[in-house]
Amino acid sequence: MPPDSVAKHQEIQDYVGWNAEDARRIHIAADLILAGAEQVVDDFYSEIKRHDAARGVITGGEEQIDRLKSTLRQWLRLLVTGPYDRDYLVARLNVGRRHVTIGLDQVYANAALARMRWRLTRLLGATWNLDPKELAPTLEALHKRLDLDSIIIQDAYQAEYLAQQQSLSKENLQLRTALDRSQPAWEIVGESTAMKSVYRLIERAGPTDKPILIQGESGTGKELVARALHRASLAADKPLVAVNCAALPETLLESELFGHEKGAFTGAVVSKPGLFEVADGGTLFIDEIGELEGGLQAKLLRVLEDGMLRRVGSIREQQVNVRIIAATNRDLAKEVEQGRFREDLYYRINVLRIHLPPLRERFGDIPLLVEHFAEDGWTWDQRLLQVLEGYGWPGNVRQLANALDRAMILSDDDCLQVENLPPEIVRSSQQSAVSPGGGDGDLDSVNRRHVCETLARCDNNKTRTARALGVSRRTLYRLLEKYGIDPQ
Ligand SMILES: Nc1ncnc2c1ncn2[C@@H]1O[C@H](COP(=O)(O)OP(=O)(O)OP(=O)(O)O)[C@@H](O)[C@H]1O
After folding, report:
1. What angle do CA 92, 49, 230 make, to 5 degrees?
2. Nearest-angstrom CA–CA distance, 133 and 481
3. How many CB atoms sit inside 10 A of residue 153's CB?
4. In this structure, are 310 and 324 located in the same domain?
5. What is the DSSP letter of 200?
6. Are residues 105 and 203 in the same domain?
7. Which atom of ligand 1 is nearest to the CA of 114?
8. What pLDDT, on a 0 to 100 scale, did the predictor assign at position 435?
9. What region holds the Sigma-54 factor interaction domain (predicted)?
10. Among 47, 115, 189, 223, residue to substitute to test ligand 1 (most atoms within 8 Å of Cβ)
């Protein structure tokens, strides 16, 4: 592994906040997870096999599946036993590549990883008959480890994708397209009027090559819409590459987006193309564009204006042809007014805009979403829907999905019970039963109280609080600022 990767992963590790205590907790849980590994592995593959197109890729039958399963077991062992060090990274990248090369591309890897995360959480929750409070730090450590892991697999994917791109035959490209088109994991659920107008915009705006700005609160499905736009575009058979500006520190983000030349900075011992180059001919989805720093905004503007970019440390300019889809949960017009976002860039990306309504403005979609997120065979009653429809959902659809996951994990049978929803949701339903008639004006105070209570329940730990609320850490900071809450 090149030293620059090691340095980069150290930086990612620091960023995610992985520490010795987390390692210790995972180590304690390792036996349990490994004992349930078969279940997790089977689950991973049943997720993959759900996709018709994947069946066409795994052509070696059961034998190939067995080989892949043993790679996955190795992955799990690494995930829960290995220290997070250089050897882990090398081994992990190899495991990642093996999955990626057979065509389980990013889309599947992500869907299957999400599934694995759910299964591991459930496994720990079900086996350790513990108070959720006691279990929380271990689950958090596990989630951190999976976060680190998915950043690494993303890297492996990119490296592999680039290598494949150079030698890819036409058939393979068509297969890749088929994979992306037939991907049901990106299904957008909702039949409210607001969502119907979103679908209409996707149909109309998708086939143009114009930049699109998707605006909406965190967890409203902006990434889903970006994927639908790409599928509806003329470049649907070309790559869709996603980057989240809030997930990486500025320096990493610059080299991630624009690439770097050998020697550009300490540790850059090899040249690396950026995501713009990887997405050439296709779409680049820039999530949380409002987080982009000034210097990077200028560089992005240049690419939008004439398609020219320069890798970090290079004097050579090169041309790319990439359609930009950007998303933000901020009010960019306000950011422009306050001088935090370049006006010229704003006008460039704001040619077409899609607004995603928050969940509290489309309660009618809740029953469909519950059906979508509940596993096969689960049931629920009207009371559960009433409670869900009476809650404010600051974390939107993502928070709803997490709440339902929790209810499934804690349930003794296959019935979703109100009592197994997160306490803040149950409490808010009890409060609204006592004081009915709260209008929009009350929503902020309900949300504020909800954030305060969750913060207290998570011992003022912001990572845990953000996870419990189903929002990113940055969103949590914005909520704290908005509601004037002192996190201490
Ligand atoms: N309408 C929907 N139908 C089905 N699933 C949805 C819908 N909206 C959101 N989701 C699910 O909710 C989760 C969050 O969605 P997504 O990542 O697209 O939101 P986002 O707006 O991009 O969030 P953020 O701003 O925090 O990045 C995902 O698991 C996604 O699949």
Report:
1. 80
2. 27
3. 22
4. yes
5. H
6. no
7. 29
8. 47
9. 188-409
10. 223
pTM of the predicted structure, to 2 decimals = 0.60
Ligand 1 atom closest to residue 190's alpha carbon, by position in its atom list:
1
- What residues line ligand 1, using a CB cutoff of 6 Å? 188-190, 216, 218-224, 287, 327, 329, 372, 397-398, 401, 472
Q: Are residues 403 and 285 in the same domain?
A: no
- For 487, residues 6+ apart whose C-beta sits below 8 A from its C-beta are 455, 460, 462, 480
Ligand 1 center–CA 286 separation, angstroms: 15
**pLDDT of 441:** 44
Q: Rounded distance, CA 14 to CA 16, Å? A: 6
Length of the chain: 488
| pLDDT higher than 70, residue 285 | yes
The pLDDT of residue 165 is above 60: no
CA 399 to centroid of ligand 1, rounded, Å:
9
Q: What pLDDT, on the 0 to 100 scale, is given for residue 232?
A: 87
Residue 205 structure tokens: 């705006």
In this prediction, residue 337 carries a pLDDT of 94
By alpha-carbon position, which residue is closest to atom 29 of ligand 1? 398
Going by C-beta distance under 8 Å and a sequence separation of 6 or more, which residues neighbour residue 133?
Answer: none
Q: From 398, 469, 472, 473, give the residue whose CB has the most ligand 1 atoms within 8 Å, as the site to mutate.
A: 398
| Percent of the residues in the chain that have a pLDDT greater than 90, as a whole number | 20
215: enclosing H helix or E strand: strand 212-216
Number of folded domains that form the chain: 3
Nearest-atom index, ligand 1, CA of 400 = 12
Q: How confident is the model at residue 181 (pLDDT cuts 50, 70, 90)?
A: very low
From the CA of 221, how far away is ligand 1's center (Å)?
3
* Ligand 1 atom closest to 221 (CA): 18
> What confidence tens digit (pLDDT) does each residue in 192-241 have?
888 999 998 998 888 888 899 999 998 899 989 998 999 888 888 888 88
Q: Are residues 164 and 236 in the same domain?
A: no
Amino acid letter for position 240: L
